[in-house]
Design goal:
The protein is α+β, with helices and mostly antiparallel strands and 264 residues long. The protein is globular, with a radius of gyration of 19 Å.
Length: 264
Amino acid sequence: MPSPSATMVIWTSAWLRGSAAADDVLDALNIWAEAHEVRAADDQTAAALDLPGPNDSPTGLAMLLAALRRCPETNAHLVLPVAGDVRGLGGPGPFSEAALLAGEAVVLPEAGIGLVPRPGPEGLMRWSVHDLPEMPPTPLHPIGEAEHGLAAAMRQAATALTELGVARKRPGVREEIAAALANTPRPQWPEAMPQRALRVLERSAEVAAILDVASRDAPGGALSASAARARDEALRPIYNAVRAARMTAVDDAARVLSDRAARH
């Protein structure tokens, strides 16, 4: 599904280059929570960015944006780490641990900052701001490769539904997929959002809805441990393709938005 980190990457990329207003960023993030609070993960980062520390009262997103504005010009990247694949986090440390626990993060390598969102109680989103270790250069993955990988993932997902007997066990599976897709948050994007990246994000959501249904047990049934493992093994490559496509699409959109703003 889409993520707060993806929204943050795309909108801050537009805002930092002057093609979006700060209020646009705040409005776009409101889809994820009614309120957002921000703290630095440690006192040193708090002092460097003029943000509250881990034991202080939190501040809001406007103060985070102000801190980003004071940093060196930077590009933002989306990271969706999972156990066994923590590329893009820059090695072990508090940031990597927080990002892995959340399953997502924003990396701003030139500024040396990482952002991790975590849902809190009663419609609250908590953002922790981390000092990054020295980051390796972010590799550029062509959006065409992401499209190709996602198309293959869609075929795999359809095959997996058949091989796992999902349709046979649950005759209303198409309705379940449609419902899962309908319940997926639909973030606002900048007017200049690249259509190719948007198409990849939309297709990623479609495949994720299929995976959501395929990973469920049939109503009233329970899989054996061996059957559950077989299902997870069949679906894992598809999950990986969706993650890769999302990261590539978000990074491509951020790059295009930044480049367009720089030319005007």
